[in-house]
Amino acid sequence: MTNALPPRAGRRCHNALNPLHSTLYFSPDLDREFTALGFSEPGAMRLAARSAALGAVGAGTVAATFYNYNHALLAQHLPAVWETASPAEVLDSRLRAVDATLRRLLGDEAVASPEMAEAAGLALRATEACTRHARPLYSANADLPVPEEPHLAYWYAATLLREHRGDGHLSALLSAGLDPVEALASHTATGKGMAPRWVLGTRGWGRADWEAATERLRERGLLGADGELTESGTALRAGLEEHTDRLDSAPYEHLGAAGVERLTELGRGFLFAAAGAGAFPADLVGKG
User: 222: which of 170, 233, 237, 275 fits an S-S bond (Cβ 3.0–4.6 Å)?
Assistant: First the structure.
């Protein structure tokens, strides 16, 4: 084990693994599996898929752990979704959807490859240093069994690393004084976040909420009149990521520089293949 990681190595590794985890939420395989359970509304399916590890929770718990969703939207679906299917049934269907999604996007050869098994082993080793305190989504998923098949174990490990970083990121957002819509709007302004129509369509906020949040950001000197981040806004967003890096350093320090570099290389290969197979909507990311 070595702590001598290059700057932002953990973040780069996260950026290679996290999007492959997220392919599930854009997958027709998820729709098929959850429709078979009795779900009919895509938003309810995705809320159930991500929150099921927490148990049969209500809107309040999910609002706290997801951070940037409108509680009113969540209350339309939670806890009612658990009357359609139990968390255990949802988790089983989720894993079947992951299996189908990865096989469709990557192909059976890649799924069964030595590289996939290597990536799963490296990612799982990194999770050994994740911590549970103040990390509810990570901790809930960490209670689930590790899938036996390497591609499912890789997705599971990517989920743990995603939620571990995400739980820490919420602390950074609170420290920066950004409310849910301000966090979304400032991220979109970087050009790396979801486009506004995707934010509004999935998080339950209205155009008026978005405009009010951007006005608050302008009043703080974080956004200019043109909607672009100011120097202060850019510094705030950079500081958020650095704060998150510090809170999320343990898994990557545990894996070591060589392991992180190799996992990032493997993860990028799988991610580029999935993206090339149409895993994500073309207009998902952007300022417009």
Answer: 233
User: Residue 187's closest CA among 138, 232, 238, 224?
Assistant: 238
pLDDT of residue 1: 42
The per-residue pLDDT for range 192-206, each reduced to its tens digit, is 999 999 999 999 999
- Cα(117)–Cα(82) distance, rounded to whole angstroms? 34
pLDDT less than 50: residues of the chain:
1-2
**Rounded to an integer, what distance in angstroms lies between the CA atom of residue 163 and that of residue 142?**
10
Check: pTM over 0.90? Answer yes or no. yes
Q: At what angle do helices 150-176 and 114-127 cross, to 10 degrees?
A: 40
Q: Do residues 45 and 31 touch, judged by C-beta distance below 8 A?
A: yes
Contact of 49 with 25, CB cutoff 8 Å: yes
Residue partners of 279: CB distance under 8 A and separation at least 6: 19, 23, 26, 27, 105
Rounded-to-integer distance, Cα 286 and Cα 288, Å: 6
Question: Which ranges in the chain belong to alpha helices (H)?
Answer: 9-22, 28-37, 42-51, 59-66, 71-77, 81-84, 87-106, 108-111, 114-127, 136-142, 150-176, 180-189, 196-203, 207-219, 231-247, 249-255, 257-276
Tokens 């995603």 correspond to 162
Residues 124-160: b if buried by 16+ CB within 10 A, e if exposed: bbbbeebeeeebbbbbbbbeeeebebbbbbbbbbbbb
- Quote the pLDDT of residue 4: 80
